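Exercise 3.2. Students should predict the tertiary structure of the chain below and write it as C-alpha coordinates, then compare their answer with the key that follows.

Predict this chain's 3D structure.
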Amino acid sequence: MRWFAALAVTVFGCSSTVQTAPPLPQEAGVADGAAVVADASAGGVTYNKDVAPIIQARCQTCHTEGGIAPFALTTYLHARNMAGAIVEETSAKRMPPWGAHDTGECTPPLPWQNDERLTEAQIATIKAWSDTGMAEGNPADLPVATPPTKIELATPNIELVPTSTYTPIGSKDQFRCFVLDPKITERQYLNGSYFIPGNPKIVHHALLFSDPNRQSLKKASVGESYDCFGGPGISSNALLGAWAPGSRPSEFPPDAGTPIEPNTLFVMQVHYHPHAGVMAPDSTKVQLRYTASTPTYFGYALLQGNYQSDATISGTGLMSGPDDPTKGVAFEIPAGTTAHTETMVFTVPEKIGGFATPPLHLSGIGAHMHYVGVDEKIWVERKDGTSQCLLQEPRWDFNWQRSYSYDAAFDKLPILNPGDKVKMRCTYNNTLDNLAVAGALKQQGLTAPQNVKLGETTLDEMCLGAFQVLFKLF
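Answer key:
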Protein backbone atom coordinates (compact mmCIF):
# COMPACT_ATOMS: atom_id res chain seq x y z
CA MET A 1 0.00 0.00 0.00
CA ARG A 2 1.24 3.48 -0.77
CA TRP A 3 1.22 6.29 1.78
CA PHE A 4 -2.38 7.50 2.28
CA ALA A 5 -3.74 4.94 -0.16
CA ALA A 6 -5.73 3.65 2.80
CA LEU A 7 -6.51 5.10 6.20
CA ALA A 8 -6.50 2.66 9.05
CA VAL A 9 -7.06 2.98 12.77
CA THR A 10 -5.18 -0.25 13.21
CA VAL A 11 -4.38 -2.46 16.20
CA PHE A 12 -2.91 -5.88 15.81
CA GLY A 13 -2.63 -8.58 19.08
CA CYS A 14 -4.58 -14.63 21.53
CA SER A 15 -3.09 -18.01 22.27
CA SER A 16 0.00 -19.45 23.82
CA THR A 17 1.62 -20.44 20.51
CA VAL A 18 5.41 -20.54 20.87
CA GLN A 19 7.64 -19.71 17.93
CA THR A 20 11.34 -20.17 17.40
CA ALA A 21 12.87 -16.71 17.33
CA PRO A 22 16.07 -14.90 18.23
CA PRO A 23 16.59 -14.88 22.01
CA LEU A 24 15.12 -11.88 23.74
CA PRO A 25 17.85 -9.61 25.13
CA GLN A 26 17.76 -8.78 28.80
CA GLU A 27 16.19 -5.44 29.57
CA ALA A 28 15.02 -3.48 32.54
CA GLY A 29 11.44 -4.14 33.63
CA VAL A 30 8.97 -1.37 33.01
CA ALA A 31 7.23 0.31 35.90
CA ASP A 32 3.47 0.49 35.53
CA GLY A 33 0.41 0.97 37.71
CA ALA A 34 0.94 -2.28 39.63
CA ALA A 35 2.93 -2.07 42.81
CA VAL A 36 6.35 -3.68 43.05
CA VAL A 37 5.18 -5.94 45.80
CA ALA A 38 8.19 -7.68 47.25
CA ASP A 39 11.95 -7.74 47.41
CA ALA A 40 12.77 -11.32 46.48
CA SER A 41 15.96 -11.20 48.52
CA ALA A 42 14.08 -10.37 51.72
CA GLY A 43 12.39 -13.79 52.07
CA GLY A 44 8.95 -14.44 53.49
CA VAL A 45 7.21 -14.10 50.12
CA THR A 46 3.59 -15.32 50.19
CA TYR A 47 0.87 -15.70 47.62
CA ASN A 48 -1.72 -13.56 49.41
CA LYS A 49 0.55 -10.61 50.12
CA ASP A 50 2.99 -10.60 47.23
CA VAL A 51 1.97 -12.78 44.28
CA ALA A 52 -1.82 -12.40 44.13
CA PRO A 53 -1.68 -8.63 43.42
CA ILE A 54 0.62 -9.26 40.44
CA ILE A 55 -1.55 -12.03 39.01
CA GLN A 56 -4.71 -10.01 39.55
CA ALA A 57 -3.29 -6.96 37.78
CA ARG A 58 -1.48 -8.68 34.93
CA CYS A 59 -2.89 -12.17 34.34
CA GLN A 60 -6.58 -12.33 35.09
CA THR A 61 -7.75 -10.50 31.99
CA CYS A 62 -7.28 -13.83 30.20
CA HIS A 63 -6.68 -16.39 32.96
CA THR A 64 -10.22 -16.62 34.37
CA GLU A 65 -12.90 -19.30 34.30
CA GLY A 66 -14.20 -19.31 30.75
CA GLY A 67 -11.51 -16.88 29.60
CA ILE A 68 -9.40 -17.15 26.47
CA ALA A 69 -6.42 -18.61 28.37
CA PRO A 70 -6.19 -22.42 28.70
CA PHE A 71 -6.45 -22.30 32.51
CA ALA A 72 -7.64 -19.98 35.26
CA LEU A 73 -5.41 -18.17 37.78
CA THR A 74 -7.97 -16.82 40.22
CA THR A 75 -7.13 -18.79 43.39
CA TYR A 76 -4.11 -19.82 45.41
CA LEU A 77 -4.54 -23.45 44.33
CA HIS A 78 -4.62 -22.42 40.68
CA ALA A 79 -1.35 -20.51 41.06
CA ARG A 80 0.35 -23.22 43.14
CA ASN A 81 -0.53 -25.95 40.64
CA MET A 82 0.80 -23.86 37.74
CA ALA A 83 3.75 -22.29 39.57
CA GLY A 84 6.39 -23.91 37.38
CA ALA A 85 4.77 -22.67 34.18
CA ILE A 86 4.20 -19.21 35.64
CA VAL A 87 7.86 -18.88 36.62
CA GLU A 88 9.05 -20.15 33.24
CA GLU A 89 6.80 -17.87 31.19
CA THR A 90 7.33 -14.71 33.26
CA SER A 91 11.09 -15.21 33.52
CA ALA A 92 11.29 -15.61 29.74
CA LYS A 93 9.05 -12.53 29.37
CA ARG A 94 6.58 -14.39 27.21
CA MET A 95 3.83 -13.61 29.69
CA PRO A 96 2.06 -11.28 30.02
CA PRO A 97 1.99 -11.06 26.21
CA TRP A 98 3.87 -7.99 25.02
CA GLY A 99 5.84 -7.86 21.80
CA ALA A 100 7.66 -4.51 21.93
CA HIS A 101 11.06 -4.91 23.58
CA ASP A 102 14.38 -3.09 23.65
CA THR A 103 17.06 -5.06 21.85
CA GLY A 104 20.71 -4.63 21.02
CA GLU A 105 19.73 -2.94 17.75
CA CYS A 106 16.56 -1.09 18.75
CA THR A 107 15.69 1.22 21.62
CA PRO A 108 12.33 2.89 20.99
CA PRO A 109 12.42 6.68 21.46
CA LEU A 110 9.74 6.84 24.18
CA PRO A 111 8.07 4.63 26.78
CA TRP A 112 4.82 2.87 25.86
CA GLN A 113 1.35 3.61 27.14
CA ASN A 114 -0.36 0.86 29.17
CA ASP A 115 2.82 -1.19 29.27
CA GLU A 116 1.78 -4.65 30.48
CA ARG A 117 5.23 -6.10 31.12
CA LEU A 118 6.23 -7.15 34.62
CA THR A 119 9.03 -5.31 36.36
CA GLU A 120 12.20 -7.19 37.21
CA ALA A 121 11.15 -7.04 40.88
CA GLN A 122 7.78 -8.61 40.12
CA ILE A 123 9.40 -11.41 38.12
CA ALA A 124 11.83 -12.03 40.97
CA THR A 125 8.98 -12.03 43.49
CA ILE A 126 7.10 -14.77 41.63
CA LYS A 127 10.26 -16.88 41.34
CA ALA A 128 11.14 -16.37 45.03
CA TRP A 129 7.64 -17.50 46.04
CA SER A 130 7.98 -20.66 43.95
CA ASP A 131 11.53 -21.39 45.17
CA THR A 132 10.68 -20.97 48.86
CA GLY A 133 7.72 -23.33 49.10
CA MET A 134 4.79 -21.40 47.62
CA ALA A 135 3.39 -20.25 50.97
CA GLU A 136 -0.24 -19.09 50.91
CA GLY A 137 0.16 -16.53 53.68
CA ASN A 138 -2.28 -14.57 55.80
CA PRO A 139 -5.81 -14.52 54.33
CA ALA A 140 -6.12 -10.91 55.47
CA ASP A 141 -3.38 -9.96 53.00
CA LEU A 142 -5.30 -11.27 49.98
CA PRO A 143 -6.52 -8.37 47.81
CA VAL A 144 -10.22 -8.09 47.17
CA ALA A 145 -11.10 -9.97 44.00
CA THR A 146 -12.10 -7.71 41.12
CA PRO A 147 -13.87 -8.72 37.91
CA PRO A 148 -11.47 -9.13 34.99
CA THR A 149 -11.22 -6.14 32.72
CA LYS A 150 -13.49 -6.57 29.73
CA ILE A 151 -11.73 -5.61 26.52
CA GLU A 152 -13.92 -3.13 24.69
CA LEU A 153 -13.93 0.47 23.52
CA ALA A 154 -14.70 2.99 26.28
CA THR A 155 -17.86 5.07 25.76
CA PRO A 156 -18.61 4.08 22.15
CA ASN A 157 -21.15 6.18 20.31
CA ILE A 158 -22.39 3.31 18.20
CA GLU A 159 -22.07 -0.46 17.84
CA LEU A 160 -22.67 -1.95 14.41
CA VAL A 161 -23.51 -5.59 13.75
CA PRO A 162 -24.75 -7.35 10.58
CA THR A 163 -28.42 -8.31 10.55
CA SER A 164 -27.54 -11.85 9.45
CA THR A 165 -24.94 -14.26 10.84
CA TYR A 166 -22.51 -15.97 8.50
CA THR A 167 -21.24 -19.54 8.60
CA PRO A 168 -18.14 -20.32 6.49
CA ILE A 169 -18.41 -23.38 4.27
CA GLY A 170 -15.47 -25.75 3.90
CA SER A 171 -11.96 -25.45 5.30
CA LYS A 172 -10.39 -22.80 3.05
CA ASP A 173 -9.82 -19.14 3.95
CA GLN A 174 -12.83 -16.97 3.11
CA PHE A 175 -13.27 -13.20 2.91
CA ARG A 176 -16.77 -11.84 3.53
CA CYS A 177 -17.86 -8.19 3.45
CA PHE A 178 -20.78 -6.90 5.53
CA VAL A 179 -22.52 -3.61 4.68
CA LEU A 180 -23.10 -1.44 7.77
CA ASP A 181 -24.92 1.90 8.04
CA PRO A 182 -23.80 4.21 10.88
CA LYS A 183 -26.56 6.66 9.85
CA ILE A 184 -24.26 9.69 9.90
CA THR A 185 -26.18 12.90 9.14
CA GLU A 186 -23.35 15.37 9.73
CA ARG A 187 -19.57 15.15 9.61
CA GLN A 188 -18.13 13.07 12.42
CA TYR A 189 -14.54 12.47 13.49
CA LEU A 190 -13.72 8.86 14.28
CA ASN A 191 -11.69 8.74 17.49
CA GLY A 192 -11.65 5.06 18.39
CA SER A 193 -12.72 1.61 17.24
CA TYR A 194 -12.76 -1.98 18.40
CA PHE A 195 -14.02 -5.23 16.88
CA ILE A 196 -15.61 -8.00 18.90
CA PRO A 197 -15.44 -11.30 16.97
CA GLY A 198 -18.56 -13.38 17.24
CA ASN A 199 -16.65 -16.63 16.72
CA PRO A 200 -12.99 -16.00 17.61
CA LYS A 201 -12.04 -19.59 16.71
CA ILE A 202 -12.40 -18.83 12.99
CA VAL A 203 -12.07 -15.03 12.67
CA HIS A 204 -8.54 -14.41 11.37
CA HIS A 205 -8.90 -10.64 11.17
CA ALA A 206 -11.46 -7.91 10.47
CA LEU A 207 -11.17 -4.59 8.60
CA LEU A 208 -13.51 -1.61 8.40
CA PHE A 209 -13.67 0.43 5.19
CA SER A 210 -15.51 3.66 4.46
CA ASP A 211 -17.93 3.76 1.54
CA PRO A 212 -18.84 7.45 1.06
CA ASN A 213 -20.39 6.76 -2.35
CA ARG A 214 -22.51 3.88 -1.02
CA GLN A 215 -21.27 1.58 -3.79
CA SER A 216 -21.49 -1.48 -1.57
CA LEU A 217 -25.28 -1.39 -1.94
CA LYS A 218 -24.79 -2.75 -5.47
CA LYS A 219 -23.31 -5.87 -3.90
CA ALA A 220 -25.50 -6.34 -0.83
CA SER A 221 -28.17 -4.52 1.14
CA VAL A 222 -27.43 -2.96 4.53
CA GLY A 223 -26.74 -5.65 7.09
CA GLU A 224 -26.10 -8.30 4.48
CA SER A 225 -22.84 -9.60 3.00
CA TYR A 226 -20.92 -10.60 -0.13
CA ASP A 227 -17.69 -12.37 -1.04
CA CYS A 228 -14.72 -9.97 -1.20
CA PHE A 229 -11.27 -11.54 -1.43
CA GLY A 230 -8.57 -8.85 -1.55
CA GLY A 231 -10.76 -5.89 -0.62
CA PRO A 232 -14.33 -4.56 -0.54
CA GLY A 233 -14.44 -3.97 -4.30
CA ILE A 234 -15.47 -0.33 -4.07
CA SER A 235 -13.70 2.96 -4.84
CA SER A 236 -12.84 5.52 -2.12
CA ASN A 237 -12.46 2.68 0.35
CA ALA A 238 -10.36 4.28 3.09
CA LEU A 239 -9.51 1.74 5.78
CA LEU A 240 -10.81 2.93 9.15
CA GLY A 241 -10.32 0.07 11.55
CA ALA A 242 -8.70 -3.32 11.96
CA TRP A 243 -8.66 -6.25 14.37
CA ALA A 244 -6.55 -9.37 14.77
CA PRO A 245 -6.30 -11.85 17.68
CA GLY A 246 -5.11 -10.13 20.84
CA SER A 247 -6.01 -6.63 19.69
CA ARG A 248 -6.92 -3.86 22.06
CA PRO A 249 -9.13 -0.87 21.21
CA SER A 250 -7.57 1.57 18.76
CA GLU A 251 -7.80 5.10 20.09
CA PHE A 252 -6.51 8.51 19.11
CA PRO A 253 -5.88 11.19 21.75
CA PRO A 254 -9.14 12.90 22.81
CA ASP A 255 -8.59 15.87 20.50
CA ALA A 256 -7.93 13.92 17.28
CA GLY A 257 -10.05 12.03 14.79
CA THR A 258 -10.55 10.86 11.21
CA PRO A 259 -13.30 12.78 9.34
CA ILE A 260 -16.33 10.77 8.20
CA GLU A 261 -18.80 12.50 5.85
CA PRO A 262 -22.64 12.30 6.06
CA ASN A 263 -24.37 9.29 4.47
CA THR A 264 -21.16 7.26 4.47
CA LEU A 265 -21.63 3.51 4.71
CA PHE A 266 -19.09 1.19 6.29
CA VAL A 267 -18.00 -2.16 4.91
CA MET A 268 -16.64 -4.68 7.42
CA GLN A 269 -14.46 -7.31 5.80
CA VAL A 270 -14.00 -10.45 7.90
CA HIS A 271 -11.32 -12.98 7.01
CA TYR A 272 -12.43 -16.44 8.14
CA HIS A 273 -9.91 -19.22 8.67
CA PRO A 274 -11.98 -22.36 9.35
CA HIS A 275 -10.12 -25.35 10.72
CA ALA A 276 -10.61 -28.43 12.88
CA GLY A 277 -14.22 -28.67 11.72
CA VAL A 278 -15.26 -25.42 13.40
CA MET A 279 -18.36 -24.37 11.46
CA ALA A 280 -20.32 -22.38 14.03
CA PRO A 281 -21.90 -19.13 12.75
CA ASP A 282 -20.21 -15.78 13.26
CA SER A 283 -21.65 -12.34 14.01
CA THR A 284 -18.69 -10.00 14.46
CA LYS A 285 -19.51 -6.44 15.53
CA VAL A 286 -17.59 -3.18 15.65
CA GLN A 287 -17.69 -0.41 18.25
CA LEU A 288 -17.03 3.19 17.18
CA ARG A 289 -16.45 6.42 19.05
CA TYR A 290 -16.56 9.98 17.66
CA THR A 291 -15.10 13.19 19.06
CA ALA A 292 -17.58 15.45 20.83
CA SER A 293 -16.63 18.40 18.59
CA THR A 294 -14.26 19.33 15.76
CA PRO A 295 -10.83 18.13 16.94
CA THR A 296 -7.56 20.04 16.81
CA TYR A 297 -5.73 17.25 14.99
CA PHE A 298 -6.49 14.98 12.10
CA GLY A 299 -5.74 11.42 13.09
CA TYR A 300 -4.96 8.74 10.55
CA ALA A 301 -3.39 5.33 10.84
CA LEU A 302 -1.65 4.02 7.76
CA LEU A 303 -0.97 0.45 6.76
CA GLN A 304 2.31 0.21 4.89
CA GLY A 305 3.90 -2.93 3.47
CA ASN A 306 3.20 -5.82 1.12
CA TYR A 307 4.34 -3.70 -1.80
CA GLN A 308 6.02 -5.78 -4.50
CA SER A 309 7.71 -3.10 -6.64
CA ASP A 310 11.50 -2.88 -6.67
CA ALA A 311 12.50 -0.30 -4.06
CA THR A 312 16.09 -0.32 -5.31
CA ILE A 313 14.74 1.32 -8.48
CA SER A 314 11.60 3.17 -7.38
CA GLY A 315 12.66 4.13 -3.85
CA THR A 316 9.47 2.60 -2.47
CA GLY A 317 8.52 -1.03 -1.96
CA LEU A 318 10.38 -4.31 -1.58
CA MET A 319 14.15 -4.24 -1.27
CA SER A 320 16.34 -6.88 -2.86
CA GLY A 321 16.83 -9.87 -0.56
CA PRO A 322 19.02 -12.92 -0.01
CA ASP A 323 16.98 -15.37 -2.11
CA ASP A 324 15.91 -13.12 -4.99
CA PRO A 325 16.17 -14.23 -8.61
CA THR A 326 19.08 -13.03 -10.74
CA LYS A 327 17.01 -10.20 -12.15
CA GLY A 328 14.55 -8.13 -10.14
CA VAL A 329 13.34 -8.70 -6.60
CA ALA A 330 10.89 -11.21 -5.19
CA PHE A 331 9.14 -11.85 -1.89
CA GLU A 332 9.72 -15.55 -1.33
CA ILE A 333 10.65 -17.45 1.83
CA PRO A 334 12.21 -20.79 0.87
CA ALA A 335 11.23 -23.89 2.80
CA GLY A 336 13.91 -24.83 5.34
CA THR A 337 15.29 -21.32 5.96
CA THR A 338 15.58 -20.25 9.58
CA ALA A 339 16.43 -16.53 9.34
CA HIS A 340 15.19 -15.33 5.97
CA THR A 341 14.64 -11.56 5.75
CA GLU A 342 12.49 -9.30 3.60
CA THR A 343 12.76 -5.52 3.83
CA MET A 344 10.23 -2.88 2.77
CA VAL A 345 10.97 0.84 2.39
CA PHE A 346 8.49 3.71 2.04
CA THR A 347 9.26 7.34 1.43
CA VAL A 348 7.02 10.00 2.99
CA PRO A 349 5.69 11.96 -0.02
CA GLU A 350 6.37 15.66 -0.52
CA LYS A 351 2.68 16.31 -1.21
CA ILE A 352 -0.64 14.76 -0.25
CA GLY A 353 -3.65 15.63 -2.37
CA GLY A 354 -1.78 18.46 -4.01
CA PHE A 355 -0.81 20.08 -0.70
CA ALA A 356 2.55 20.07 1.04
CA THR A 357 2.79 17.19 3.49
CA PRO A 358 2.80 18.51 7.07
CA PRO A 359 5.00 17.03 9.80
CA LEU A 360 3.42 13.73 10.79
CA HIS A 361 3.56 13.09 14.52
CA LEU A 362 3.76 9.33 15.11
CA SER A 363 1.58 8.46 18.10
CA GLY A 364 1.42 4.69 17.70
CA ILE A 365 2.92 1.83 15.72
CA GLY A 366 2.41 -1.89 15.17
CA ALA A 367 3.89 -4.80 13.23
CA HIS A 368 2.16 -7.55 11.26
CA MET A 369 3.29 -10.85 9.81
CA HIS A 370 1.78 -14.35 9.73
CA TYR A 371 2.91 -17.73 11.10
CA VAL A 372 6.35 -17.86 9.48
CA GLY A 373 7.40 -14.50 10.94
CA VAL A 374 9.59 -14.38 14.04
CA ASP A 375 11.00 -10.84 14.24
CA GLU A 376 10.06 -7.44 12.84
CA LYS A 377 11.96 -4.18 13.17
CA ILE A 378 10.67 -0.77 12.03
CA TRP A 379 12.86 2.32 11.81
CA VAL A 380 13.12 5.65 9.99
CA GLU A 381 16.06 7.02 8.06
CA ARG A 382 15.68 10.79 7.88
CA LYS A 383 16.68 13.22 5.18
CA ASP A 384 19.22 14.76 7.58
CA GLY A 385 21.11 11.44 7.75
CA THR A 386 19.95 10.40 11.21
CA SER A 387 18.24 7.10 11.94
CA GLN A 388 15.75 6.22 14.68
CA CYS A 389 14.35 2.82 15.60
CA LEU A 390 10.62 3.01 16.24
CA LEU A 391 9.68 -0.56 17.19
CA GLN A 392 11.04 -4.07 17.31
CA GLU A 393 9.14 -7.26 18.11
CA PRO A 394 12.01 -9.76 18.51
CA ARG A 395 9.74 -12.69 19.37
CA TRP A 396 6.80 -12.21 17.03
CA ASP A 397 3.66 -14.21 17.82
CA PHE A 398 0.82 -14.07 15.32
CA ASN A 399 -1.67 -14.92 18.06
CA TRP A 400 -0.76 -11.93 20.23
CA GLN A 401 -0.85 -8.90 17.99
CA ARG A 402 -1.38 -5.32 19.02
CA SER A 403 -0.24 -1.79 18.34
CA TYR A 404 1.84 0.27 20.74
CA SER A 405 1.21 3.92 21.59
CA TYR A 406 3.99 6.23 22.71
CA ASP A 407 3.48 7.75 26.16
CA ALA A 408 4.19 11.39 25.33
CA ALA A 409 2.54 14.70 24.53
CA PHE A 410 1.92 15.68 20.90
CA ASP A 411 5.01 17.89 20.63
CA LYS A 412 7.29 15.13 21.98
CA LEU A 413 6.21 12.41 19.53
CA PRO A 414 8.56 11.18 16.78
CA ILE A 415 8.02 13.14 13.56
CA LEU A 416 8.01 11.84 9.99
CA ASN A 417 8.81 14.53 7.43
CA PRO A 418 8.59 14.50 3.63
CA GLY A 419 11.52 12.58 2.18
CA ASP A 420 12.07 10.43 5.29
CA LYS A 421 12.31 6.72 4.55
CA VAL A 422 10.44 4.31 6.81
CA LYS A 423 11.86 0.80 6.71
CA MET A 424 10.55 -2.56 7.89
CA ARG A 425 12.71 -5.67 8.15
CA CYS A 426 10.81 -8.91 8.63
CA THR A 427 12.56 -12.13 9.64
CA TYR A 428 11.07 -15.57 8.99
CA ASN A 429 11.68 -19.13 10.15
CA ASN A 430 10.17 -21.52 7.60
CA THR A 431 11.02 -24.78 9.37
CA LEU A 432 9.21 -27.20 11.64
CA ASP A 433 11.25 -25.77 14.54
CA ASN A 434 8.84 -22.85 14.29
CA LEU A 435 5.86 -24.39 16.07
CA ALA A 436 3.49 -21.89 14.49
CA VAL A 437 4.51 -23.16 11.04
CA ALA A 438 4.13 -26.76 12.16
CA GLY A 439 0.63 -26.04 13.45
CA ALA A 440 -0.43 -24.18 10.31
CA LEU A 441 0.81 -27.03 8.09
CA LYS A 442 -1.03 -29.60 10.20
CA GLN A 443 -4.27 -27.67 9.71
CA GLN A 444 -3.79 -28.06 5.95
CA GLY A 445 -2.85 -31.73 6.09
CA LEU A 446 0.79 -30.98 5.20
CA THR A 447 3.88 -32.43 6.86
CA ALA A 448 6.72 -30.38 5.36
CA PRO A 449 7.33 -26.62 5.01
CA GLN A 450 6.44 -25.04 1.67
CA ASN A 451 7.93 -22.06 -0.14
CA VAL A 452 5.98 -19.05 1.09
CA LYS A 453 5.14 -15.93 -0.91
CA LEU A 454 3.46 -12.60 -0.35
CA GLY A 455 -0.30 -12.94 0.01
CA GLU A 456 -3.40 -12.53 2.13
CA THR A 457 -4.22 -16.04 3.29
CA THR A 458 -2.89 -17.41 6.56
CA LEU A 459 -0.32 -19.65 4.87
CA ASP A 460 0.99 -16.75 2.80
CA GLU A 461 3.16 -14.08 4.44
CA MET A 462 3.17 -10.34 4.95
CA CYS A 463 5.56 -7.62 6.06
CA LEU A 464 3.42 -4.74 7.30
CA GLY A 465 3.64 -1.76 9.61
CA ALA A 466 0.71 0.15 11.08
CA PHE A 467 1.45 3.83 11.71
CA GLN A 468 -0.88 6.06 13.72
CA VAL A 469 -0.14 9.68 12.77
CA LEU A 470 -1.45 13.06 13.89
CA PHE A 471 -1.18 16.49 12.28
CA LYS A 472 -2.79 19.83 12.98
CA LEU A 473 -6.00 20.71 11.22
CA PHE A 474 -5.43 24.45 11.19
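Discussion points: Residues 210 and 266 are 5 Å apart (CA to CA). The longest strand covers residues 188-196.
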